[in-house]
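Exercise (ungraded).
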Amino acid sequence: MRIYKVPVLRHIVGFYTSFIRGTPLLVQIYLAYYGLPLMLKALEASYGWRFDISGIPAIYYVYVAYSINTGAYLTETIRGAIEAVDIGQFEAAQSIGMTSQQMYLRIILPQAFLVALPNLGNTIISLIKDTSLAFSVTVIELIAQAKLTAARNLRFFEVYIAAAAIYWLTCIVLEHIVRLAERYAKRKRGLA
Amino acid sequence: MIELRGIFKSYSNRPVLKGIDLEVEQGQVVVIIGPSGSGKTTLLRTINFLAPADRGLIRIGEIQVDATKAHKADIMAIRRSTAMVFQSFNLFVNKTALENVMEGPLVVRKLPKGEAREMSLHYMERVGLAGKEDSYPNQLSGGQQQRVGIARALAMEPKAILFDEPTSSLDPELVGEVLAVMKSIAAEGMTMLVVTHEMSFARDVAHHTIFMDQGQIVEQGSPQQLFSNPQEERTQRFLANFLDRRV
């Protein structure tokens, strides 16, 4: 959207990425957790819909916050990757009469994906580590579980080491997957 | 086949094309020469709207478009009836040589896959690259890449092919193979508009030669006329300079 410069959308997307990237994720989680129920209540009042708002588990608000947050970072990553594709690739596709959709799906995005892969990997890894913030709105995730366990048996160091190991292992597996994907994509264009 | 009338184009108030009229008959090879910055490449790119003209009339076969009010459908129709060969090849780097050639027939012309493939294999052979079908662009030499570029253009079965300095980024020893392919498709009657610095190609192959400078056509005529007996002082200076440098 930022590449095509569609007038209204461009400003909305610009505001969105700027706001999300310029505020801490913790604040966004609070905003989702306290703000979304208010919005739902307003919808309920004006449309007469019936929700059991208090019955929505906190984890759903957290999902929303993470999705919106990751979306903003991905938008920038993908925009950067598309801009990194050589202008000649666009021109060649246009010169044989491809539509924009054909051009993006068949030529530009497959190339942009390879450029974006390392950044995509980083974004996912940050997301995994940021799950530790969900406890702030009562969701029992890995760190919360660790705290509760440690409070019971008082082995703080061991429990946190275990928690760190779990995060690390998860991220190592992810890094590996990203590397495999990269190698596959490179082989697909004869680079490896 | 190609007709341009009163083509004007500026880049941020700097005029690049100042009213170009040009005609290419079916089966003709027209070569445009001129110093860098004379607007040759831009002129070529106004034809398929890679660089839309500010005003002027563009006709390819029966498709006629006024640049000031060109609709998307007109632009698409023009692009589909022409093809371009680029200075920097611009092969799709995520596709093999054969896939590059097949994109046009398969995706744009919507031919059945078998037919598109057969046709593409034929054009790969036509440019002397049978056996290189599965190579990716970065596994090919510059000369081979440009020949794939020509095969990709041919596979559109266009009314005319636009060549934008097709040999300018090639090592000298690779220029010959690309020019040979261009000569052979010219001999088969393809309509070609060629921007080049290869004077020998212009002399041997062109039916008509155009000398451009500062966004205008300075002089035009048969290659014999233009090269051996240029009338304009500017053309004489350019050619003298060029021949000096070549020695």
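Further reading is listed at the end of the chapter. For now, observe: Chain A has a mean pLDDT of 89. The interface with chain B takes residues 86, 88-89, 91-99, 102, 106-107, 110-111, 114, 188-191 of chain A (CB under 8 Å).
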